[in-house]
Design goal:
The complex is a heterodimer of chains A (about 375) and B (about 325). Chain A is of the alpha+beta class and about 375 residues long. Chain A has 8 helices and 20 strands. In chain A, a hairpin with a 2-residue loop joins strand 12 and strand 13. Chain A starts with a strand and ends in a 26-residue tail after the last strand. Chain B is built from 15 helices and 2 strands. In chain B, helix 6 runs antiparallel to helix 11, helix 6 packs antiparallel against helix 13 and helix 13 runs antiparallel to helix 14. Chain B is globular.
């Protein structure tokens, strides 16, 4: 197993810059997820780590060794593809043993390791079956088996659950994480699904337009989004934004939004007057008739234990997550109370988060943090 | 994988099935009647073969096949009677016409030439076609579109249009009437078809297969050999049949460029007519035997061929 270090990585296809100046470190044994919308450069980054694409600039170090320009087969990594890439002309046993064959492993050893891997993944009863007859989840397990059997330096996975049914996907998320806990292999996992990212990752990098917007633990990314993009991309429904104007000065702890005073975490920097946005997670909104921030009920989405209520305010629609028992009718006037300690402030122009008291406590455990903007 | 879902969406109704069935049967009848005619003629005697109205029922005879494989000389009945007993069916048949077998005809060597040239050129065309198609499919080839168009453009005129330059060129190069020359020529004609057909098939094979193999420690060539080729067999089989049919049936160039040792069967068979009267049964026998290799090859590969044709047609 090994640490993966990516320094100033850049990839351009002609005029199109797919990845620009990426920097991150995946520590030995860590489960690292690259999360972002399609076309954000996450897969390109992964393919560069694998050696399937060569970078335009920058460096990739695997276990301290510079592998930037090395061929894929010389990097000792395993890759799990979205389409699994199981060879249809081989059965399960041959598929799993295929990488060992390349290394010239003796037949008996291949047999032993394939069976050991199959047992680990609970597919030992399928070894002599053809891969074309397998269900989605089993195909995924075979693809994983092909990766694990080699005991590579690290695992790279490109949306490996993307083609599975929801039912299988939940199961596999659980299995993957459990598997990782057992073998502790450095893993880079690419997905656009925030649920997968949040539930599996030790560290997440949120990417957009070839840039890493934020690098941190799932908790950090959810609670302290570094940019408006991250705030909007993570969370379902995403963070609400309410616009407000004027600058901020160090030490301020109250802002004026739509004529209502709102207490916010204490500001830690001076911001020149500009368009600003107040970010509120839906679960940090309560209904309180005493609040000056008011709106009319627009619609509700019943989710069982909670409900998502859309409230039309003068600054646009705000979604709140409230207990399911509250009875609401469309058109009702309500007051909105916000959990002040959990609010985020952003500069609208750059999308960057303003430093406030929520950044005081260190949530993550000290890995390199990358900032942009 | 997702490729298997490319079946037709609407199930055909009973009526349209019946109409389609009728059309197919009619077409099959129209196609097969000439073949049956040839097959029947090959077992007729020369007088039966030119009888009018044509004989549907007749006494089968091997005279056509005997004449195809032998050369004969005419002798007086006294000479023939003086010979010992006939040594086989052909000897007997030929003696009835006051002739004796002088030796084997050129048909067998010509047939063997056809086999060597057709299978040789098919192998070359498919081999080169597979490699170029893979290159065009997987690598950034400079001017790839123009090159592909150029390759296709070699098929835009009938090949025979360049017969005279090729004839002169072959004479200068000493390739006239050689098997090598014919293999080169048929390969050149077929390779464009092979590149285009195979590119379609190889494009359909996700490159993840090779990428997975290359990450797992194989070289690109090994990855191609172990993951792409096995999945392209369908396309390769279909392409090979198309190439083989062309090379096997080609008449014009063969007639122009081969006359002796490298002559193929197609230009040879009509020359039978010239030798001692119009021997239609022998011509029919030659044609019947000539059909056999393609028939066998097609039957052996029919599954791949059918799948190949539909597979390549359903593009996403």
């Amino acid at each position: 197993m090994a640490e993966i270090r990516v320094e100033h990585l850049r990839k351009a296809f002609g005029d199109f810059v797919a990845v620009q100046d990426s920097n991150f470190v995946v520590r030995d044994g860590e489960f690292f997820v690259m999360l972002g919308p399609s076309g954000c450069g996450k897969t390109t980054t992964l393919r560069m780590i694998a050696g399937l694409e060569l970078p335009t600039g920058g460096k990739i170090l695997l276990g301290g060794e510079d592998v930037t320009m090395r061929r894929a087969r010389e990097r000792d990594i395993a890759f799990v593809f979205q389409l699994f890439a199981l060879y249809p002309h081989m059965n399960v046993r041959k598929n799993i043993g295929f990488p060992l064959l390349a290394q010239g492993t003796p037949g008996i050893e291949i047999r032993r390791r394939v069976e050991e891997t199959a047992k680990l993944l609970r597919i030992d009863h399928l070894l002599n079956k053809s891969v074309s007859g397998l269900a989605g989840g089993d195909r995924q397990r075979v693809a994983l088996g092909r990766a694990i059997v080699r005991r590579p330096k690290c695992f790279l996975m490109d949306e490996p659950l993307g083609t599975l049914d929801t039912e299988f996907r939940d199961l596999m998320v659980h299995e993957l994480r459990e598997l990782h806990n057992r073998i502790r292999a450095t893993t880079v996992y690419v997905t656009h699904d925030q649920m997968e990212a949040m539930s599996m990752a030790d560290k997440i990098a949120v990417m957009n337009h070839g840039v890493i917007e934020q690098f941190g633990s799932p908790r950090e990314i959810y609670d302290r989004p570094a940019t408006m993009f991250v705030a909007d991309f993570i969370g379902s429904p995403p963070m609400n934004f309410l616009g407000f104007g004027g600058g901020l000065s160090k030490g301020a702890s109250e802002i004026l939004v739509q004529g209502a005073k709102v207490a916010v975490p204490e500001v830690r920097e001076d911001i020149a007057p500009a368009d600003m946005a107040l970010g509120i997670r839906p679960e940090h909104i309560r209904f309180d008739d005493g609040s000056k921030l008011r709106g009319a009920i627009y619609g509700t989405e019943y989710l069982g234990t909670t409900q998502i209520v859309a409230v039309e305010t003068s600054g646009g629609i705000i979604k709140a997550r409230v207990p399911a028992e509250i009875r609401l009718n469309a058109g009702d006037q309500v007051g909105l109370a916000l959990s002040s300690a959990r609010l985020s402030l952003f500069e609208k122009g750059s999308g960057r988060a303003v430093r406030t008291a929520i950044h005081d406590t260190v949530i993550h455990d000290g890995a390199a943090e990358v900032r942009h903007g | 994988m997702s490729l298997t879902s490319a079946h037709s969406v609407v199930a055909p109704s009973a009526v349209s099935k019946r109409i389609a069935g009728t059309i197919i049967v009619l077409y099959a009848l129209i196609s097969i009647v000439p073949l049956l005619w040839i097959f029947a003629t090959s077992f007729k005697t020369p007088p039966d073969s030119i009888a009018y109205p044509p004989k549907i029922l007749f006494q089968p005879s091997l005279e056509g096949y005997c004449n195809l494989f032998s050369t004969r000389t005419r002798q007086t009945p006294e000479y023939i009677n003086a010979l010992g007993p006939a040594t086989g069916v052909c000897d007997e048949t030929v003696r009835k016409r006051n002739m004796v077998i002088a030796g084997p005809s050129n048909f067998m060597p010509r047939f063997v030439n056809s086999l060597i040239i057709a299978f040789g050129s098919t192998f070359c065309a498919v081999f080169l076609g597979t490699l170029s198609a893979y290159g065009f499919s997987r690598f950034k080839v400079p001017l790839a579109d123009d090159l592909l168009f150029f390759i296709l453009s070699t098929r835009m005129m009938p090949p025979i249009a360049v017969a005279i330059p090729i004839y002169l060129m072959y004479r200068e190069l000493g390739l006239s009437d050689t098997a090598l020359g014919m293999i080169l020529l048929y390969t050149a004609v077929n390779v464009s078809l092979a590149v285009w057909l195979l590119k379609g098939f190889i494009d359909e094979i996700p490159r993840e297969y090779e990428e997975a193999a290359m990450i797992d420690g194989y070289t690109r060539l090994q990855a191609f050999w172990r993951t792409v080729l096995p999945q392209a067999t369908t396309g390769i089989a279909a392409t090979a049949i198309f190439c083989l049919i062309f090379a096997w049936n080609e008449y014009a160039f063969a007639a122009l460029l081969t006359s002796g040792s490298a002559q193929t069967a197609p230009p040879f068979i009509p020359t039978i007519i010239g030798e001692g009267g119009q021997d239609w049964p022998a011509v029919a026998a030659g044609t019947t035997i000539f059909l056999v290799p393609i028939l066998v090859f097609t039957i052996l590969l029919r599954k791949q061929l059918l799948r190949g044709i539909t597979f390549g047609a359903v593009r996403k």
